[in-house]
Amino acid sequence: MTRRQTLAPDAAAIERLADAAIARLPERFRLHLRDVVLRIEEFADDDVLAEMGIEDPFELSGLYSGRPIGQQSVFDSGTPPAMIHLYRRPLLDEWVETGVGLEDLITHVIVHEVGHHFGFSDADMHAIEQAGE
User: Fold this and answer.
1) How far is 60 from 52, CA to CA, in rounded Å?
2) With 80 as the cut, is the pLDDT of residue 16 above it?
3) Structural domain boundaries of the chain?
4) Architecture of the domain spanning 11-68+79-132
5) Strand order, beta sheet including 62-65
6) N or C: which end of the chain has fewer CB within 10 A?
7) Which InterPro entries does the record associate with it (predicted)?
8) Which DSSP letter does residue 24 get?
């Protein structure tokens, strides 16, 4: 993104920011993310929203899908790879509404979804965030 950019960042720009956020993670975490797929989509699909009990697609900016590391097995065969999904439109809305920098917002969502990959619940991560404040 540049200072003169007047259009909303596209999926490629969001992916670059997400890749940069992952690259800033400590190596010991990045090693466990090599096989995690990063997907940038406009919104979560209707099935995902229904499964999570979310009616407004703007309420979900990111999602981890897959088994956390501690639950993975060498016997897992035919299962889809672990994925971090970032939803561009909800991210852009949150960016505009909160005034938080887009890079900071994407980093926050990436760290949150990486936490799920390592087996942390939402409650665990909220407690960690509050302890750090």
Assistant:
1) 10
2) yes
3) 11-68+79-132
4) 2-Layer Sandwich (3.30)
5) 37-41, 83-87, 62-65
6) C
7) Zincin_1, Zincin_1_sf
8) T
